Amino acid sequence: MENIIEYVTGLTVGEPQTYRNMAVFPLMGKSSGLDYLLFDEAMNAGLKITETGSVPTLHFTNNTGKKVLIMQGEYAVGGKQNRMIATNVLMANGFDGEVPVKCVQHGRWSSPGLEGKFFSANRRAPQTVMMADGQQEVWSEVHNLSVGLGVKSATGDIEDSFSQRSHDVEDYTSNFDYVPGSVGIVVFVANKGLSIGADIFDKQSTMRKNFNKIVESYALEAIASSNEHLALGRPKGFVSTFLEKIGQCQFHERTAVSLGRDFRLVGPISGFALDNYGVPLYVTLSSTKAKNPIASPRFETGFSRGNVIID
Description:
The chain has helices at about 1-10, 40-45, 125-130, 135-150, 160-165, 165-175, 205-225, 235-245; strands at about 10-15, 15-20, 20-30, 35-40, 50, 55-60, 70, 75-80, 85, 90, 95-105, 120-125, 180-190, 195-200, 230, 250-255, 260-265, 270-275, 280-285, 290, 295, 310. By secondary structure, it is α+β, with helices and mostly antiparallel strands. It has one domain. The protein starts with a helix and ends with a strand.
């Protein structure tokens, strides 16, 4: 775990890009030499997903010729229900087995016209959904988000939130660009106080490829509270303080699906980390605390509800 802490706290915080109630800070760092496909790339290269007959698992067959990195919170559409990957995965070439998932479409259990096929949605769930512990809590967070966005979905599908507010999501994402040299980002969202999230990879190319997908996920939550305002003073030190809290977290190891070591982080902040032979592949951190280790109150920022000012 020390290597993960050293990696995260050793990154350099860049200048923020801001729009309305959201700010994105690049985290600059060196790239690893690891070779793998991302989930979307792997689906195009022949990664197969099939139903197991059980909601909380899907069967994956990786004959792409490469390892595959899948972020917790990415989701596949199709089959009998749209699903969200429930853990971080570094999948070996030749892997043929089950992967834990959570349903993000409450009201469907059929596959009309889809013949059981799954497709990459090229989405990462918002942090409130991704961090939810248990299926009922996921459904609750999907519902709460749709209510906040004024979205109606006949099947309780999180994809409807993205599609029905796509114009607003694009309005946000068009104001943020990947910064060359960055391996991660920290995102501030003024949302009933202040929400903070971080997504950090082992190399710059992975961050660049996932940048829009991740920013979209934060933008959806920002849109739900767009009446808030975020004014930045001197926030880079605050970002560093947030990242340093990883050193106060407990690392609870989960059973890895395939390769590497998979951890859930519990402490003053919450998160997940996937490590492969000492190389942190993906770390995600949230200002949402965890208890036993279910997500609970927000990270203590000292800011009150309403307009949020970082100084």
